Amino acid sequence: MNICYIYISTYRSKKSTKYRMVCEKRECDVSASGGSGCDELGNKGQDTIKEKEKEETCNGCGKVLTKKLSCPICLKRKMVSYFCTQECFKNSWKEHVVKIHEMWKDEEEEEKKKMDINRKPDEEEEKRKKLMEIIKKKLSPEHFDPTNRKYWKYDHHLKNFVNFAFTGNLRPWPISEINPVPEHIKKPDYAVSSIPESELKYKRKSDIYVNNEEEITKIREACVLGRKALDYAHSLVSVGVTTDEIDKKVHNFIIQNNAYPSTLNYYKFPKSCCTSVNEIVCHGIPDFRPLKNGDIINIDISVFFKGVHADLNETYFVGDIDKVSNEAKELVQTCYFSLMESIKKCKPGMLYKNIGNIIDSYVSKKGFSVVRTYSGHGVGKLFHTNPTIPHFKKNKAVGIMKPGHVFTIEPMINQGHFSDVLWPDKWTSATSDGKLSAQFEHTLLITEKGVEILTKRMEDSPSLGFDTKDDLYLA
């Protein structure tokens, strides 16, 4: 048998690095079907080439690497994952986590399940069944005790919180399965993969999209539907109702109107709306916790309809308004009117960074603070896009308002310090001191004459618990 010896030859240029297999004896063409030795070594060589090419390109943008920055988590696991710059690593982080890190977790959990099944001896099977029955009961909505973390490790959602130091009184509850979406509903690109590829492609651009008349008409329709969905959600808010119930009914309402709930599976968000109670700043995940008298709750609803998104939210009082503290009432009203004050100033030629100055100035006079972690954003064909609109003063927002711009303003106002803490579910944001937080949001259109609130409140919208009639012509 004629055995050949193959090595990998490297060819570098300014723009790229290429690899090919070369037979050391120069006696055969390794790319063709030679002797068995060539076949075997050739296959190994091809695998080596693929690995090397993977090492030479950026995991974020796909460009050829001139220098290599490694993901520290991948490095620990001895995985090939390089980036060209720190900025590229930062911009690609969410996508990288979903594609690589989450995949590892899923594989590890599957392995653990297999091991658990295989290592249970027959004599322990009865004990295991009894334990599972106890766990199931303890984690059921009827018997769940949020102060007892003993059984949290057995729940796919709660296991992340076992050792977490909460800043306030609110605790997570078990959550239900993801809501199904019929095949006929038009879906955004992330509905299956969870990664908004269209957003990522546009992310590196700095321009602000100008919508044409046809697109604006569609966005208007989506915003009207979003307003109806939010008003419906508001009508469901009462003592004893769970946020999971609200989420399911809102989901069905949106689906029945041939739309898709934009939050569902967006970077793996598991629900069809966000429900943020008391000290939760934003992105609360609906669960089986019943609402209590005196709570405040923000409901954030987004819909994808006719190929475009609408985004809006409001904060409501739960139950008897007399049970709500005066400071909580003032917080909610301050948040609402700070939003309205900023909207009144919007017009062509206004700098986006001035929105934060208006909101922060109004809020600070009332003794509250503005959250800095989250911002308003462009919306339309993409769920989140340029411009980025901070709500605090002296921010560095880029851009000038022009007719055709569609964006959200959505200030989050805290009773105490402006800082927030992210819960282990990687979505829920809570105030760092455990004090209350409120938020309001509208989707806006810049016109030739000024601004139009596309998600405006209607004459028959449920009352917020305070006078908003003076702003009805705007809101």
UniProtKB/TrEMBL annotation:
<dbReference type="GO" id="GO:0070006">
    <property type="term" value="F:metalloaminopeptidase activity"/>
</dbReference>
<dbReference type="InterPro" id="IPR001714">
    <property type="entry name" value="Pept_M24_MAP"/>
</dbReference>
<feature type="binding site">
    <location>
        <position position="384"/>
    </location>
    <ligand>
        <name>a protein</name>
    </ligand>
</feature>
<feature type="domain" description="C6H2-type">
    <location>
        <begin position="55"/>
        <end position="108"/>
    </location>
</feature>
<comment type="similarity">
    <text>Belongs to the peptidase M24A family. Methionine aminopeptidase type 1 subfamily.</text>
</comment>
<keyword id="KW-0031">Aminopeptidase</keyword>
<feature type="binding site">
    <location>
        <position position="311"/>
    </location>
    <ligand>
        <name>Zn(2+) 4</name>
    </ligand>
</feature>
<dbReference type="Pfam" id="PF15801">
    <property type="entry name" value="zf-C6H2"/>
</dbReference>
<keyword id="KW-0378">Hydrolase</keyword>
<feature type="binding site">
    <location>
        <position position="377"/>
    </location>
    <ligand>
        <name>Zn(2+) 4</name>
    </ligand>
</feature>
<feature type="binding site">
    <location>
        <position position="441"/>
    </location>
    <ligand>
        <name>Zn(2+) 3</name>
    </ligand>
</feature>
<protein>
    <recommendedName>
        <fullName>Methionine aminopeptidase</fullName>
        <ecNumber>3.4.11.18</ecNumber>
    </recommendedName>
</protein>
<comment type="subunit">
    <text>Associates with the 60S ribosomal subunit of the 80S translational complex.</text>
</comment>
<keyword id="KW-0863">Zinc-finger</keyword>
<feature type="binding site">
    <location>
        <position position="311"/>
    </location>
    <ligand>
        <name>Zn(2+) 3</name>
    </ligand>
</feature>
<dbReference type="InterPro" id="IPR000994">
    <property type="entry name" value="Pept_M24"/>
</dbReference>
<dbReference type="GO" id="GO:0005829">
    <property type="term" value="C:cytosol"/>
</dbReference>
<keyword id="KW-0645">Protease</keyword>
<dbReference type="InterPro" id="IPR002467">
    <property type="entry name" value="Pept_M24A_MAP1"/>
</dbReference>
<keyword id="KW-0479">Metal-binding</keyword>
<dbReference type="InterPro" id="IPR031615">
    <property type="entry name" value="Zfn-C6H2"/>
</dbReference>
<feature type="binding site">
    <location>
        <position position="441"/>
    </location>
    <ligand>
        <name>Zn(2+) 4</name>
    </ligand>
</feature>
<dbReference type="Pfam" id="PF00557">
    <property type="entry name" value="Peptidase_M24"/>
</dbReference>
<comment type="function">
    <text>Cotranslationally removes the N-terminal methionine from nascent proteins. The N-terminal methionine is often cleaved when the second residue in the primary sequence is small and uncharged (Met-Ala-, Cys, Gly, Pro, Ser, Thr, or Val).</text>
</comment>
<keyword id="KW-0862">Zinc</keyword>
<dbReference type="GO" id="GO:0008270">
    <property type="term" value="F:zinc ion binding"/>
</dbReference>
<feature type="binding site">
    <location>
        <position position="300"/>
    </location>
    <ligand>
        <name>Zn(2+) 3</name>
    </ligand>
</feature>
<keyword id="KW-0963">Cytoplasm</keyword>
<feature type="binding site">
    <location>
        <position position="410"/>
    </location>
    <ligand>
        <name>Zn(2+) 4</name>
    </ligand>
</feature>
<dbReference type="GO" id="GO:0006508">
    <property type="term" value="P:proteolysis"/>
</dbReference>
<dbReference type="GO" id="GO:0004239">
    <property type="term" value="F:initiator methionyl aminopeptidase activity"/>
</dbReference>
<feature type="binding site">
    <location>
        <position position="283"/>
    </location>
    <ligand>
        <name>a protein</name>
    </ligand>
</feature>
<dbReference type="InterPro" id="IPR036005">
    <property type="entry name" value="Creatinase/aminopeptidase-like"/>
</dbReference>
